[in-house]
Amino acid sequence: MKRIFITGAAQGIGREVAKRFWENGHELVLIDLPSLKESELQDQFPERMEYIQADITSLELRPLIEDEMKKGIDVLVNNAGVTRDSTLLKMEEKDWDLVVDVNLKSVFILSQMAAKVMKEAGGGVILNAASVVAHNGNFGQANYVATKAGVIGMTKTMAKELGKNKIRVNAIAPGFIATPMVSKMPEKVIAMMEGKTPLGRMGKPEDIANAYYFLASDEASFITGTCLNVDGGIVI
Q1: Of 13-17, 55-59, 114-118, 131-135, which gets the smallest average pLDDT?
Q2: Is 210 part of a structural domain of the chain?
Q3: Range of the domain at 181
Q4: Residues with a known catalytic role
Q5: Is position 45 within any domain?
Q6: Is the model's pTM score more than 0.85?
Q7: pLDDT (tens digit, 9 = 90+) per residue, 85-108?
């Protein structure tokens, strides 16, 4: 049984990732903002689950997460992410800062915490959420794209630095996934994106969860420093 930390775990992809690990007998430490979904999580994961209500960008709450990691961590999934879309000429600095803090800076902070514990324990796995938009950019998402491109670069650097400590670091770049965030988009936009995807559909959160589970497993023991596109072929 491994101890799995997942950020942004209350809904969407994060919750599906948690389900995948939990169903295979692992222990969960789920991290997300204070949420009414806590009772739902407790119902879904009645055992082997701890829920930390924490803003991962908060200086005050970092010690809470760090202390929990010191009790043991085998896998860290840096899944938390936000969007604040706007074109470059209209984007406000506060929206740039928030997206960078959540999507990029938190990956650095939590990975550093986890790596210190994993090094002493003899190894571990760090998995980061990138995005296919990091490869080609996306209109109205200069902040989001910058963070996801940064995650890919940071993943490769961490893999080079931490390999000697038997810590593997990889990233997943999801394509167009049916999450609560996506469901708010206009139907014509959803239809357009499905039409651009060679497999002709949106991805499901389970598709991403399966990829994370594989990269965390012993079957992926010789994979590090990679960014795996799980996108139905949209970036071909």
Answers
A1: 55-59
A2: yes
A3: 3-230
A4: 144
A5: yes
A6: yes
A7: 999 999 999 999 999 999 999 999
